[in-house]
Please model this.
Amino acid sequence: MKLRVSAVQYHLHTISSFEEFSKQVEHYIKTAEEFNSDFILFPEFFTTQLLSIGTKQGHPLTIQDLPDFTEQYQSLFKNFAIQKKMHIIGGTHVLRKGDQLFNVSHLFYPDGRVAEQSKLHLTPTEMKEWNLTPGENLIVFKTDKGTIAMLTCYDIEFPEIVRMAKAKGADIIFCPSCTDDRHGFHRVRYTSHARTIENQIYVVTTGTVGSLPTIDFMRANFGQAAVITPNDIHFPPRGILVEGELNQDMVVTADLNLELLYQVRESGSVTTWRDRRTDLYPDWEPKKSSLLTY
Model:
């Protein structure tokens, strides 16, 4: 099976209304539509741009206010997914559930369904400064273009969770990210490459660019989109199908061929997925597993 994916290097800047946010989102989605993409990926925390709208008194909003935009955000992306007949991974948005806040990836299906995956591993800033709560379940999502997982930024740095996603059938990991410097960016980027080699899967990743001067912890962004492959004869030697220009406002697009993954798993130069030692390190323990399939 072949499919086309686009990833957005989303430019953060101060806005004054939800309508401005909507128009910027529409621009990126229409760009992906012009390339006939099946999936489009937005980055982590890109909806923090909405906090720059501020209050009527001119004060900036805080992360605690972001869930107030949830209904508008979900309606916007749901409608675009239906209209464009496209799978949209709406980056992440902060949801309030009870008295807790979660950093949640959203998958908007072309038929109107909306699926969620909470970020499982939280950075110190997310926990200490924003008081977010980590998710508890890993979910893989079936689509008419294959089975995918959404693992956000820091999640991709933990090989165990990606191995579990692949064991549940995921061939593509979509990794929305938000990093503020080169160190954070390269941690996500290098571990994404490692995950493609270990599991013989694709990783599609992207990050925020630009700046939100009035929003704490969103003043600096260092990002680049990339579509990353295993390192084998069927794929580019560096394992990169496409990558954007660092810190530029742009969309990158590439074609994925799932049959190539199946081929390298069976007869590649190395067969890392087939050769894993599940007698020594099982993919997961079914009786204790919190893995779900959507």
Observations:
- The mean pLDDT is 96.
